[in-house]
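Shipment paperwork, digital attachment
Item: protein structure file
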Amino acid sequence: MDKVRILIVPVLDIMNGFVVHAIAGEREKYRPYTDSALCNSPDPECFLDRFREMGFQLVYIADLDSIMGRGSNQWVINHAIKMGFTVYADIGRAGISLPDDERLKHVIGTEYLLYPGELSLIKSRVASLDMEYDNVKFTNSLINIKEIVPILTHSTPSELLIINLKFVGTMRGINKHTIELVRQYYNGRLYVGGGLGSLNEIFDLRNYGVDGILVATLLHKGVVNRPYYIV
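Attachment content:
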């Protein structure tokens, strides 16, 4: 079997100006990182410096204050771009109305869409299927993934992320059944996140047509330490 390269996309969850430990999508419980293997403080600039030293060129930044409608950490996104990163910026529904460019891609998550009829808004954008187990989360509903994936052929995003919100930060493993369902309808670049449990799982994901993995916890633990793995 031919070797393939799986890209590692480091994730920074920012709240109140600090890098926080995201667990299971329970945002009110997120706390600043104080025990990361990368930095001894939750300062986003420290983590961006480390990512650059490690060779990363792409970073996912979730501005949780913007997502929750209570502020902005846009300075972190701007700083990352100035450092030379390409940024996938998750700023909530506000990202829908903002333009993308070569270095800044706003992530349009399904949890910011009011209902499935708004999936047309993800066309030609970087989009995420925000999952709660086998259901896709919308602002007003949870709908089984089997009902949503056929629509992807008509509302084709430029790149697609599958993020299992309930598994974020838990190291419980990636939901591979969801990947299989999505790959029946979507042939573009596909990233997965939420629950990566080990290096071995990265090697297993090569069998599911995954192009990249969003990683936070295993980076902070020092387990993942490079921008890609050849598997």
